[in-house]
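pasting for the record
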Amino acid sequence: MINEKDSNKNNEETEIAKAEDNEEMLGFLIKEYGMNTKSLSKLLEIEASFLDNFSENKNNIPMEKRGLLSGILGTLFYNSKITADERNRAVIDVLTQEHNISLDTIARMANVREEDIENFMNSSNLISDDTKYKIATVSMFLHFMFKPSEDKFRLTVKAIKAGIDNEGINKLTGSTYEEIDSLRILCQQQICKQRHMKE
């Protein structure tokens, strides 16, 4: 028997799966999440007026911005499939693995025990909401402070356009091979669309 929670989750995933391209994802973010083109234009580095008429302008987006656009819209669009705890665990993983920040450091800055963070990484039910909040506040702050000045998506798309192989891009940007392959496919799709339009 499927309980109400599982049923709601399945309905949400079905709804999310309907979006197939950037235009649909953009429309969903504006309609369902209440986002606006002014704030999105800063994130996407595309004029708000351009986004307001996206259906007419989408084929005029420069090639170097298309992979970044798809990556950012996709990340925002699929946000609801990731819980707050899962997101915070991912941030802590980045801090420890990429920036060599220890759990002990995060614990001291958050005024919690290192054991609390270890428990949180294993299960959300082992610590209180107040402790989770303290950990999240510090981990998000550190993530912001250590975030590269130019994000990974932009660097990866530029590297792909430059003809760098996957191993080189991985070393340059830290993108996983799966992320690189996905962006290669997106870039190739855009090239094919451009060629088809010219024909």
